[in-house]
Write a structure and sequence with these properties.
Layout lengths: L14 H9 L14 H16 L4 H7 L7 H16 L1 H10 L7 H16 L4 H15 L4 H13 L1 H8 L3 H5 L3 H10 L4 H9 L5 E4 L6 H10 L4 E3 L4 E4 L16 E3 L7 H5 L6 E4 L6 H9 L3 E6 L2 H14 L4 E4 L14 E7 L13 H5 L4 H17 L2 E11 L8 H10 L3 E4 L13 E2 L13 E8 L3
Parallel strand pairs: 5-6, 5-8, 6-7, 8-9
Antiparallel strand pairs: 1-3, 1-4, 2-3, 9-12, 10-12, 11-12
Length: 466
Amino acid sequence: MTSNVALNPSDTASPNQLSKRAKKSPLSTGVLTDSAPLALVQRRAAEALLAVLAGNNADTAIARVDTSQFDGASRSALADLVLGTLRFFGETRGIVRQFVRAKPEPLIEAILWVAVYQLAHSKTASHVVVSQAVAAVEAVNRGAKGFANAVLRNYQRAPEAALAKARDTDEGEWNHPAWWVKRVRADHPEWWELILRGGNAQGPLTLRINPRKTTQEKLVAAFKRKEIELDVLSDATVVMKRARSVQRLPGFAEGWFSVQDAGAQLAAPLLGAKTGMRVLDACAAPGGKAAHILELSDCSLVALDIDVLRNQRVSENFSRLGLTAEIRAADASQIKEWWDGKPFDRILLDAPCTGSGVVRRHPDGKWLKRETDMAQLANLQALLIDRLWQTLAVGGRMLYCTCSVFKQENAAQIDAALLCHANMRRIRINLPGDPASSGGQLLPGGNKKTHNHDGYFYALLEKIAS
């Protein structure tokens, strides 16, 4: 293979030589476990990245790569590399492009993305990152190892200059697609930078306490005994100071808590379901908001979702939390297929959306969505509002929510619904302290009053007599 970059003879040490040097490093040996060399983890991460760019979500992409040689630490490292590279993909891709003359084969290019991400953002020793990435490339194409070594060495010589050049574009500057940056800037001229920066941050692990199973005091005491540090936000909400395996936390199996972002925890209180009410969660999976509704009231709840497999997660979550509901698999827009004609007192419509408010937790979403998806999703949202409105009792309320920051899915959607339904009125809600909350929009990040939450939109609608 002909090299696509100018090689520096002093930078062409063989992978074996570099691996020997790496073994002497007190920081990292290049081996995460006895079974999975870093080079293999880098390659699998690259394979997963290509799968994401082909249209698969990150969880699916990671699940499909061969991890038969990986233990728990290696699998965790794999996920970190995939999500980290996606989080900073705009700048990472822009940097790699600067050092190639002709586009390399996709898997080799993806290994370089992973390595550049590590060099810029990880604590792994740089010589280990380079040596292992070169080894990963060599395993794909022996003739490309010099090319890969040169790309990474050239980047290492002037990383600040390379980053500055990558940031000449909106994609490189903000690590979001250019169309996304343009739309956020137009929708939120005062807050657009805050939104984009928030989308590149890492969200905290926030827990919602189940009052039917425990109290805040009991949970905090149990965590303290295990030397697990928490920030207490309210009687119902705590935040982990350091992320841990949720399944291993005290009280998980007993249903003491659920993982739920602080912004998402606003849904159930805003809906205001009361004992004896008939309630519908129209797009329920994986069941976090539905569970919260049931924790706060003895209502009769129907949890509806179109995805049979995701409904299994709803059932599992309810079982762990000690909650009961009618769980059904159906298309919420096709009301004749599932509705028995009895009106609901409350409806939660957590509508399918771009997920633009939660990309700090799901950075793959930035690169999976296309601008053309917006119109399709907006049409579906409007259809769901219209159809589900028919199932709501007079005097009943629908809470429309999304995890989006795009106005087409949020304020514009509600404005259109109000024009189409004479028997619909919007109830003013007060979201705590967010600069954009007067319009129902929570921005990613939040502040001291709203805590550290994702981006959400809420609109409470009441059905009045015609």
